[in-house]
């Protein structure tokens, strides 16, 4: 297994294939999302991170996921509608994925085995920070919000490299 996510292909929310290597040179914050979760208001903070740091090279990548409490039952078009109208989301959204279990997406298999604490994603809005080289460098549990000093410090540190 490669130590980077660059060779992994994902589907955009519109259904097109996209290789994560296209983000080489960018710092990525990968988040599994849900529209009906207690952490759903984090969309606002994720969009604020996107607005504040995108010019510096941060890309927030959102992966809707229905693995936790069936809190993302919507279709891709319903998810886009919800995210843009309720939270003004402009960061990239992708096709719904499985973050855990037997159908776990290869991206999440790589993310969850690359950095401590290793193991399955435990809930919606877990965040993975990926370096400009495509290496997973940090993992933040759902309770670590987008405005959290530890997350912001980690993002700024990666952007400065």
From TrEMBL:
It holds the Pfam family GSHPx. GO terms for molecular function: peroxidase activity. Keywords: Oxidoreductase, Peroxidase. InterPro entries: Glutathione_peroxidase, Thioredoxin-like_sf. CDD domains: GSH_Peroxidase. PROSITE patterns: GLUTATHIONE_PEROXID_3. Belongs to the glutathione peroxidase family. This is Glutathione peroxidase.
């Amino acid at each position: 297994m490669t130590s980077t996510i660059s060779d992994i292909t994902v589907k955009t929310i519109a259904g097109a294939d996209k290789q994560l290597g296209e983000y080489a040179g960018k710092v990525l914050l990968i988040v599994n999302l849900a529209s009906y979760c207690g952490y759903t208001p984090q969309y606002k903070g994720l969009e604020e991170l996107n607005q504040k740091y995108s010019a510096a090279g941060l890309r927030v990548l959102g992966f809707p996921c229905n693995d936790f409490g069936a809190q993302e039952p919507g279709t891709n078009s319903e998810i886009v509608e919800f995210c843009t109208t309720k939270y003004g989301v402009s960061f990239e959204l992708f096709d719904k994925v499985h973050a855990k279990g037997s159908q776990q997406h290869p991206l999440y298999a790589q993310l969850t085995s690359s950095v401590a604490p290793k193991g399955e994603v435990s809930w919606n809005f877990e965040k993975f920070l990926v370096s400009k080289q495509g290496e997973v460098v940090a993992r933040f549990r759902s309770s670590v919000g987008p405005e959290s000093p530890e997350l912001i410090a980690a993002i700024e540190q990666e952007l400065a490299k």
